[in-house]
Every structure is written in structure tokens, then in C-alpha cells.
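This follows on from our talk about sequence and fold. Can you supply me with one protein entry, sequence and fold together? Could you add the entry underneath, on a fresh line?
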Amino acid sequence: MTEKKKAKKEKTYSASVAKTSDGSVQITFTISWDEIKKNMNKAAEEMGKTVEIPGFRKGKAPVDQVLGHVSYEALVEKSLQRILPLIFSDVILEHKIKPAMYPKFELLSTNKEEDWEVRAQTCEIGEIKLGDYKEKVNGALRAKKLWVPGSKTEDSEKEPTKEEKENEAISVLLKEISLTIPHMLVHQEADIKLAQLLERVEKLGLTLESYLASIKKNVNELREEYEKQAEEIIKLELILNEIARLEKIQVSEDEVSAFINAASGDPELLKRLETAEQRQIIVSLLKKRKVLDSLTLV
């Protein structure tokens, strides 16, 4: 061993990982007080740049003075913003976890002069086994052709519409492909749908209670309905993405541009769609469209 060789960086935290059968992942971190204190001082330095402290020019007050003029809660939040992304990244790499959603962090203990405990909750998607999905979809679509009453022969058939074919293909994929969706992912999507509903209801000048009374449902029934919808939407999304990956389906820049240009009548929408993030979403959308198109060519 030479002096030039760098010593292995000592861990400033410990982590325990627990997984459940539906893909949920819980990570409990214990972070050393020394690491916390170091990051609290750095957080205080950053906060000191904008805090007005009597007797000091703005941004020039020493850390000990800043610590006396900012709330402990604000310091905790700022310190964890510095620490958690790094240690979470370390743990998912070490344990080969593939998060399907951004983690939810819960503070268990943040006492001064003590190690801190923080819990992270996320989830991962299990292996998607497509099986002989093409044959099953094709068989269902061939059986779906409709006999037209009053036609000259009983063999006469009516070709299903494109929408009918797509709905049948989707139904087969959801029924035949087994895939467990983590409940916390379903729960999160249902929360988003409920929040969107509440926003729409409030804009109409109604209360959630009056809206529920009008559709003759209680909040538990509505949540159950939303969770079922969310589970099917997530499952279908994952299945179509997996088919697109296996079939090596590609979307060209010209196809993305053509999709965006279709919205050229709305300048504001066009501006939003031209971002790199939105273009990536459009690529994903067009890939799924190509998958459904290929499945319904019967």
C-alpha cells in the first residue's frame, strides 16, 4: 500500500432495507451527528447569505450568529436536502434497487447532539413476463368480428372499428399478463386524481361532500374506484413500454416534430411541447401508439 493510495471513505450513516412482496421498499437511515453538524454548518452558511443580522453586512455574519437567527426546523430541512439525495443514491446502487417513484422521506428523529433517523419509502416494479401476448391478442381480435343480422349468409361479418380493436387488445393485455403493481404507486396516482377532482369541484363552487352526494358515492368508494383505474393505467403503461422495448420500436425526431406541429395553432402549448422533457414524453406516447397499431393489424 502506498501513501498515494486514497483511503476508503468512511461511511457517515447506516441503512437497513426492507422489501415487501408487492415491490414496496423501505429504507431506514441512521446518520451520524458529526455528519449532521457538518452539513448544518454548511446549510447555515448558505442561509446566511440572505439573512439580515444586526451588526453585520448581509451575507457576512459568522455561522454561529446565523445559527441564532434561523429556525431549527429550517436548518433541519436545508441540511437534509444536502444529505439525503447522496445517501439514497448510494443505497439504491449498493442494493441494486430500481425505484419506480421518487422516495417519500419521513423524519423519525432529529434531536440535537444525537444521530438522526430518517425513513425513505419507494417501490420497484418486478419482471414483466409478456408470454405469448401476440397470439392471445390476435385470437381475441379474430373472434371479435361481428356477424351482421339480416345479411345474406351467416358467414357475413362486420369488421370492428379501430377503437373496438384497441379496446379488445388492451383488455387482453391486462387480463393475460400478470404483473403486481406496488400499492404505494397506485395510492399516489389515486391521490393525484382526487386532488384534481377537488380542484375542479371547488372551481364550480361546490364542496366535495355535495359532489359525492350528487353521484351517490362516499369518499371510500370513490378512492377505491380511482385506485382500480390507476392500477390498470399503470399496468398498461408498463406492458406497452416493455413491448416497445422488446420489439425495438423507435420514434424519429421528424415524427416528434410532426406531433408538435399539430399543436401549432396554440403558441403557448407549442412552446411548452418544445422542451426536452416534453419531447421525451411525446416519444413515449408515440411508441405506445405504435405498439397498439401493430397489435390491431388483424
User: Anything to note?
Assistant: The first helix runs from residue 33 to 48.
